[in-house]
C-alpha cells in the first residue's frame, strides 16, 4: 500500500539511548546547582556561619535568595577538643584579636597586617565610641577592612572582622595623651574602658577560640611573630613591655622610654595603702601623688636583653596582652568597679589570680606605642 504523501515514519528509540540521555540530564542539573569545589579562595567554607545567629567568630555570608532564611541550626561544640598549646600554628589554633579603638592609626593597621600568624586563623574585633572622633575612626577602619578583605592579597585577609559601637558615653571626650592620663580622670576613664573591653569580649568569644590577644589601637610596632612568641611560653596570660619611641633633643637621636606602668609586682606599701582605702577607691600606678613602690616591669629591662626572660606579675597592662581563652571562659573579665582596690586590666589580673591563673610578663620583649 502506498504511504500518503508527506507522512514520516518515526524510528523507535533505543532504550539504552534514552537511559543514557536521562543520566546525562541529571548530571547537568546537579553540576549547575551544586556549589563549586572548595579552593584557596573558599578556605573559610568549613567555618562559615550558616545563620546570622551562629557564633560571631565564624564569618557569616547572607543567602543569595532574599527572604529565604531558615531556622538557626542546632550545633554541638566540643570545647574539650579546642587546643591551647605553645605551638598554635602547627595546631591550627584560632586567635581572637580585640581592640578598643577611639582613634584610627594607619600604623596600627599596617602593623596588624605584618603579623605572620596565618590570617585565616585570626578574627578581629573592634569597639568604638559614638563620638565625633569615634565616627571618624570607624570610617577609616571600614575603608581599610574593605581594602584588605576584598581587594588585598589572599594571605592578608582575616577569617572574620566584627565592629561594635559603644552604647555608653566615654568618660573623657578628648583622646589627647595629656588629657586622658590625668590622675583625676583615671577612675572614670578606666571604668568605661573596662565596660568596652567586656562588651567586646562577651560578644565575640567563640567556641573555636584558643587565644585572645588584646591589642591597643595605638600599638604601632611589634614583632611579626608576636602571637606565636607570646604563646610559646604557654602561660595563661602574658604581657610584653610597652615602650614609646621619641626624639631626644639632648642627644639629637631617636630614643625610647617606658610607656605602660600597669604591669607590676605588688609591694607591702601598696597593700598597706589599699587596706586604708574605702571599698570604692582604687590604686593607680605611675603617679607621684600615690607612691606604691611596686616593682614595675617597665624598669626591669636587663642588660643582656634576653627576650625569653619571663617573670610573675600581680598586675598587667592591656596594650598587648595574650590570654588563653579558657581564662576568660572561667569568668575572668575586666572589672569596671573597684575589685580589691584595682580596676580594668589590673583588676583583671587580680581576678585571674583568684581563679587560679597566674599572670606573667616579658620585661625584655617590647612593643611600641604611638608617640603623639
From TrEMBL:
Q: Does the keyword Transmembrane apply?
A: yes
What SUPFAM superfamilies has UniProt attached to this entry? Nucleotide-diphospho-sugar transferases (SSF53448)
Q: Name one GO cellular component term.
A: mannan polymerase complex
- Top-rank taxon: Eukaryota
Entry's localization field = Golgi apparatus membrane
**Key word Transmembrane present:** yes
Task: Spell out the Pfam families in the cross-references.
Answer: Anp1
Sorted alphabetically, the keyword list is: Golgi apparatus, Membrane, Signal-anchor, Transmembrane, Transmembrane helix
A biological-process GO annotation: protein N-linked glycosylation
Q: Which GO terms describe its molecular function?
A: alpha-1,6-mannosyltransferase activity
Name of the protein this chain belongs to: Glycosyltransferase family 62 protein
Amino acid at each position: 500500500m502506498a504511504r500518503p504523501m508527506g507522512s514520516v515514519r518515526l524510528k523507535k528509540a533505543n532504550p539504552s539511548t534514552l537511559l543514557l540521555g536521562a543520566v546525562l540530564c541529571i548530571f547537568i542539573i546537579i553540576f549547575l546547582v551544586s556549589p563549586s569545589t572548595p579552593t584557596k579562595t573558599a578556605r573559610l567554607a568549613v567555618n562559615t556561619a550558616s545563620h546570622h545567629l551562629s557564633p560571631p567568630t565564624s564569618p557569616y555570608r547572607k543567602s543569595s535568595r532574599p527572604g529565604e532564611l531558615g531556622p538557626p541550626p542546632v550545633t554541638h561544640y566540643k570545647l574539650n577538643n579546642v587546643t591551647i598549646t605553645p605551638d598554635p600554628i602547627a595546631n591550627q589554633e584560632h586567635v581572637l584579636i580585640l581592640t578598643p579603638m577611639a582613634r584610627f592609626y594607619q600604623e596600627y593597621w599596617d602593623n596588624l597586617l605584618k603579623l605572620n600568624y596565618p590570617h585565616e586563623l585570626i578574627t578581629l574585633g573592634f569597639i568604638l565610641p559614638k563620638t565625633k572622633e569615634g565616627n571618624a575612626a570607624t570610617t577609616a577602619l571600614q575603608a581599610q577592612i574593605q581594602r584588605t578583605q576584598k581587594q588585598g592579597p589572599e594571605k592578608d585577609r582575616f577569617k572574620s572582622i566584627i565592629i561594635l559601637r559603644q552604647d555608653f558615653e566615654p568618660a573623657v571626650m578628648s583622646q589627647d595623651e595629656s588629657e586622658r592620663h590625668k590622675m583625676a580622670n583615671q577612675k572614670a576613664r578606666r571604668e568605661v574602658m573596662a565596660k568596652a573591653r567586656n562588651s567586646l569580649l562577651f560578644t565575640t568569644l567563640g567556641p573555636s577560640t584558643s587565644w585572645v590577644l588584646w591589642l591597643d589601637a595605638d600599638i604601632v610596632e611589634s614583632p611579626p611573630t608576636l602571637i606565636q612568641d607570646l604563646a610559646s611560653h604557654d602561660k595563661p596570660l602574658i604581657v610584653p613591655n610597652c615602650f614609646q619611641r621619641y626624639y631626644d633633643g639632648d642627644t639629637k637621636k631617636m630614643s625610647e622610654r617606658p610607656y605602660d606602668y600597669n604591669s607590676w609586682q605588688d609591694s607591702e606599701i601598696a597593700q598597706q595603702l589599699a587596706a586604708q582605702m574605702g571599698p570604692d577607691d582604687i590604686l593607680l600606678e605611675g603617679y607621684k601623688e600615690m607612691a606604691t613602690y611596686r616593682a614595675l616591669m617597665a624598669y626591669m629591662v636587663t642588660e643582656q636583653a634576653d627576650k625569653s626572660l619571663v617573670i610573675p606579675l600581680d598586675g598587667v597592662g592591656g596594650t598587648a596582652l595574650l590570654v588563653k581563652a579558657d581564662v576568660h571562659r572561667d569568668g575572668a573579665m575586666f572589672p569596671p568597679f573597684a575589685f580589691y582596690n584595682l580596676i580594668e586590666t589590673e583588676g583583671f589580673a587580680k581576678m585571674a589570680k583568684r581563679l587560679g591563673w597566674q599572670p606573667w610578663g616579658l620585661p625584655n620583649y617590647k612593643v611600641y606605642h604611638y608617640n603623639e
